[in-house]
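Can anyone check this?
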Amino acid sequence: MAIVGTGLPQLPRMLREAKPYAERLFQYRDLDRLDAAAARSALVTPAARQGVEFQEEAARTVVRESGGYPYFIQEYGRVLWREVDLSPITVEDVESTRDLILAELDRRFFKDRFESATDAEQHYLVVMASLGEGPYRTEEIARTGYRTRTSASVPRDGLLRKDLIWSPRRGLVDFTVPHFAKYIARNHSPQEIDV
């Protein structure tokens, strides 16, 4: 028996490509973002054990801004715990530490991912982010940021191999982690990375 845990949505496809009858060998369980109740519990329960409370609106704000992504909930909680002196933590506390929280996520989570891409791949990511929220049509990415459609295929394939993006279905790509487009929009402009 083996257990494989991954945050990559393309794992079932990759297993099928490696072993055509993989669906008979493996069971897949999607572990997606937490729903609102589970995200709230992940934030407030450990804090309550240490005598720290969250006002309801503050907890809702963290859940909404984290998108239910467990690591982001943990990072919000860590920074709030470190920066806020008084319990309960209020929505004003969340708002006053938002820039610090985003800076920590940028530094500790997003920056390394972005920097693992080549210049050409970074350009592709920036073009994706400039289109708003995904999923993104590969044709639109090519039309927006490239002279020819085929010139977009090499960086796209590299990003797929690096698991920075994935393809939910033919002709579409999306970031493998939430809020990556927002990080790129905050920190990189299409003019900055030109190929």
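Reply from J.R.: I decoded it. The mean pLDDT is 86.
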